[in-house]
Design goal:
By secondary structure, the protein is mainly α. Helix content is 77%, strand content 0%. The radius of gyration is 29 Å and the shape is elongated. The protein starts with 11 loop residues before the first helix and ends with a helix.
């Protein structure tokens, strides 16, 4: 069969086959979204992202430790802990 533009209309079997392929693709997509939305999966992805960010912040592209950044973070953490300790001592 042809319409006025000369293109062939798909048969019922072709339409059913296309629907089956689309349904399978949609099922796969929904399953993937369900997996991604699970809290354990979100935590796993965030943990992996944090590890990568930490590695990138503390290592050069060659893989060597960026000691100046590590020292700066440790100094800031030490200052924070000392400040918290002093505040608790004054209150207690």
């Amino acid at each position: 069969m042809s319409d006025s533009a000369g293109t062939r209309k798909p048969t019922a079997e072709e339409i059913e086959a296309e629907i089956a392929v689309t349904r399978a693709h949609l099922t796969s997509t929904v399953d993937e979204l369900v997996t991604r939305a699970q809290p354990k999966e979100i935590v796993r992805r965030q943990g992996e992202s944090a590890k990568v960010a930490f590695h990138d912040a503390t290592r050069t592209p060659d893989g060597e430790l960026r000691s100046e950044r590590v020292a700066a973070v440790l100094a800031a953490l030490s200052a924070l802990l000392i400040t918290v300790g002093l505040i608790r001592r004054r209150r207690g």
